[in-house]
Amino acid sequence: MAYRRKTRAWSLALCASTILAFSASGAQAADQFKQAADGASIECAVSARELTRFALIDDQFASVSKISTGTPYNDFAVTNEPLRGDIYVSVPETYSARSISFFATTKKGFVYKVSCQVEPVPAVQVFITNPAIATNKASGWESETPLETSAVRLIQAMANDQTVDGFEVRQSSALPARVGDLEIQLIADYRGSALAGKVIRLANRGRKPLTLAEADLASSQTLAISIAQPTLKSGESTVAFIVGSNGGLGHD
Questions:
Q1: Sequence-ordered list of residues with C-beta below 8 angstroms from that of 2, at least 6 positions apart, any chain
Q2: Where does residue 34 fall: left (phi above 0), alpha (psi -120 to 50 degrees), or beta otherwise?
Q3: Which residue has the higher pLDDT, 167 or 252?
Q4: pTM for the full model?
Q5: What is the SS3 assignment for 145?
Q6: Angle separating helix axes 147-159 and 131-142, nearest 10 degrees
Q7: Where are the beta strands (DSSP E) in 91-176?
Q8: How confident is the model at residue 248 (pLDDT cuts 50, 70, 90)?
Q9: Which of 44, 89, 143, 199 could form a disulfide with 116 if both were Cys (CB 3.0 to 4.6 A apart)?
Q10: Distance between CA atoms of residues 237 and 252, nearest Å
Q11: CA-CA distances (angstroms) from residue 29 to 33, 124, 232?
């Protein structure tokens, strides 16, 4: 393992940096996943006949503010579940409007405006995440030690396939790239507040043994790097772990 050093980068480091982008695709499902900042408007669909559950990730609903029509047959109801901090919305069959709206305040002090269309769908769930919460958790984990030490800790976590509090982890579908006899492929991306980590697969596609140096994969943004097996025989592969500043390592 080595910290960032001022070395001349060659084509291998350039190739590694260009493939450090990830793509993600989500499957269509009945559950709805929304991301929102404080004060943001959340658009969704609620069930016209059954319950709709709203759940906050790493937070809880504290209160809901809505306008009442004064007529129960033409008004939707919001029920707070105190144990988990979720809310449940029910819309009566006699409800004439095509949408509902309300303001929700969370226990961590965020406020969201919820605007949803009433749809003839079965019971659904709406999960809401706020990136600021994860960023604060990641920042706390990173600040436990000096930044370069935290970079080493992140490499250790990635090498042991561990989750890191507040870090977003995404598996990559990026295709491998070639630099001479070396094949390079991004496997996973860890992204926190100040730090970003990459897990890269390296394979020797040549006929002769290949020796890799940590400086070969490092760029000016690299804080720490580790190659599990620096010397590869023909056909062998290994894994490298690279940590740099968040935003310094390429991403979508």
A1: 214, 215, 218, 224, 225, 226
A2: beta
A3: 167
A4: 0.56
A5: coil
A6: 110
A7: 99-106, 111-119, 124-129, 168-171
A8: low
A9: 44
A10: 26
A11: 9, 10, 43
